Amino acid sequence: MRIPILKLHNYLLISIQTEIDDQTAIKFQEDLLAKIHKTGATGVVIDLTSVDIIDSFIAKVLGDVVSMSDLMGARVVLTGIQPAVAMTLIDLGIHLQNVPTALDLEQGLVKLHQELGG
Amino acid sequence: MNPRSCVNIHKEWDIVGARQLGREMAKEIGFGTVDQARIATAVSELARNIYLYAENGQICFEYIYTNSQKGILMTAVDTGPGIKDISSVMQDGYTTSGGLGAGLPGVKRLMDDFDIESTVGEGTKIKAIKWIR
Fold first, then answer.
1. What superkingdom does the record give (chain A) (predicted)?
2. Do A92 and B34 touch (CB under 8 A)?
3. Region B80-102: what's the mean pLDDT?
């Protein structure tokens, strides 16, 4: 299974709609970095509205992809984390403190726009 | 009647299968969405531990009832190498796999009751219960 990555001007948009297994998550990490490299995208929004579980492995992959993209010069914002997922992550002891987040896709794009100055 | 449903864990995709079954059973007995997510996440952590460290094992779910409460009991059993020092694996941040080390202490926090038994060379058995509030 592959998670589609859409390009919109200087941004990449990803909406995760499927149940993520470990391999899909790793593949997505590689695909996203390759796509950033290829397109020169400066901002990325990963929308998690449809994701109803994030366990410690998926959280690590997501946190890592934010740091990796950052190293390459692209800013990543995670959006749409469900209330139940947020509560579960904190119970697990995962705070994703250095990861930029926004309420939804729209707010995520606004955040990128502000931080990257258009 | 108290049906018991099990998932065998030996390939990576079984982790997804186990958490889907856990969530379905949690929903069926009446857990809300937040507790469904907690249960599914706990299952995912236990299933991944089996997959990573023991290669083969099983997670079973059953409903449990007392006079005043009902809940779900999950039992994760494997015949892997066992855990030498249980107190260290129950510490936050302890990992031998390069993960976040959130697994077992995380599961303990997500569930209401948690019990682990392990014998080196024989395997590990974890029981965890979540009660409906």
1. Bacteria
2. no
3. 80
